[in-house]
Amino acid sequence: MSFSDAMAAQPKKIIIDTDPGIDDAMAIFVALQSPEVEVIGLTTIYGNVYTTLATTNALHLLEVAGRTDIPVAEGSHVSITNNKKLRIADFVHGKDGLGNQNFPPPKGKPIEQSAAKFLIEQAKLYPGKVTVVALGPLTNIALAIQRDPAFSKNIGQIVLLGGAFLVNGNVNPASEANIFGDPDAADIVFTSGADVVAVGINVTHQVVFTDADREKLSRSDGKFAQYLCKILDVYFSYHHDAYNIKGVYLHDPATILAAADPSLMTYTEGVVRVQTSGITKGLTILYNKQKRFGEVTEWTDKPTVKVAVTADAPTLVKLVMERLMDS
Ligand SMILES: O=c1[nH]cnc2c1ncn2[C@@H]1O[C@H](CO)[C@@H](O)[C@H]1O
Q1: Which residues contact 211 (CB under 8 A, 6 or more apart)?
Q2: Under which EC number(s) is this enzyme classified (predicted)?
Q3: Residue nearest to atom 12 of ligand 1 (CA)
Q4: Of 61, 66, 85, 117, which one's alpha carbon is 20 to 30 angstroms from that of 34?
Q5: CB-based burial label for 244 (10 Å; 0-12, 13-18, 19+)
Q6: Cα 270-274-277 angle, rounded to 5 deg
Q7: Å from CA of 252 to ligand 1 middle
Q8: Is the dihedral of CA 263, 126, 7, 33 positive or negative?
Q9: Is 195 a catalytic residue?
Q10: Total of domains in the chain
Q11: What is the pTM of this model?
């Protein structure tokens, strides 16, 4: 579907599962500015920050956007295997997750429902019509799958930022951060039979927002552009130190736009399993179905998912810029 077709059609209902996070903040704002989607809720998860702070930040970002009509449901504080020793990437996003700006606390509160319950209920309410865009570890989505056997069928699509397909990870050479955060949950999601689209860092590392883009953003008087320019420093310094690049990767905004318009990326299809322990914990292995193995493997008879292989990076960056400046 082209962008204009998408705009003419009913906007897609999306729930953003998020751990804000600087690129999450960007992604949420881009989603709110995207006519192809209607954000019907945010659910929160640990990853870039702990879940409690993710909830605070989600409420704060909606207040900045003037969209307190959108409910926030708080997610799990522990992994699906009840692991409490979480890896929190505050070194990427700042202690507060939003570039160490010490914003005042939000006035709003999360809804009573947990994230998993909210996901289950919304999917049941609009069967086949809700897309979950998962920008953090997949605990909430896996809990929804475990708690409601109909969830995988009811949910329209799960577009997730996660995995490093045939490239090094960003936690260690094996593993990407969101999958590493809860590999057991990721394996549940990948093998659930739901319509899953995985956008890995093999693709998002092509989508670079440069120093020049940031400069342009800072000259815009768009509300979201102005806000983001305040918080981007930490994210830029981290990328400069860790990757030696003059720019940042747009992991989360690229994933939101892929959910809004799938034609911005190309995909392959296969079975994905996740390594859940050992030195390759969090490794995502795609079976491309080219070989019919003689023996039964852990990939045999599992449902397939789509995995992004290329991205139209110039258009993705352009759309992010336009939507943030036009706010
Ligand atoms: O080096 C890193 N370590 C941990 N998390 C990271 C790193 N770089 C980015 N992210 C965060 O994890 C997701 C992509 O894997 C993104 O949401 C990003 O904010």
Answers
A1: 236, 246, 247
A2: 3.2.2.2, 3.2.2.3
A3: 177
A4: 117
A5: exposed
A6: 160
A7: 9
A8: negative
A9: no
A10: 1
A11: 0.96
CA distance 158 to 177: 18
Which ipTM score applies to this complex? 0.94
Would you give the end-to-end CA distance of the chain in angstroms? 25
Q: Which domain holds residue 102?
A: 3-325
102 — pLDDT class (breaks 50, 70, 90) = confident
The ligand 1 atom at the shortest distance from the C-alpha of residue 177 is 15
Q: Which of ligand 1's atoms lies nearest the C-alpha of 23?
A: 19
Residue 295 — very low, low, confident or very high, per pLDDT cuts 50/70/90?
A: very high
Residue identifier of the C-alpha nearest atom 7 of ligand 1 = 170
Beta strands in 67-204 (DSSP E): 72-73, 130-134, 157-161, 196-199
Surface-to-core class of residue 225, CB atoms within 10 Å of its CB (0-12 exposed, 13-18 middle, 19+ buried): buried
Q: Report the 10 Å Cβ neighbour count for 218.
A: 13
Burial class (CB in 10 A: 0-12, 13-18, 19+), 149: exposed
**Strand boundaries in 206-249, DSSP class E:** 208-210, 247-249
pLDDT at 3: 56
251 belongs to the catalytic site: yes
- Write the CATH number for 133: 3.90.245.10
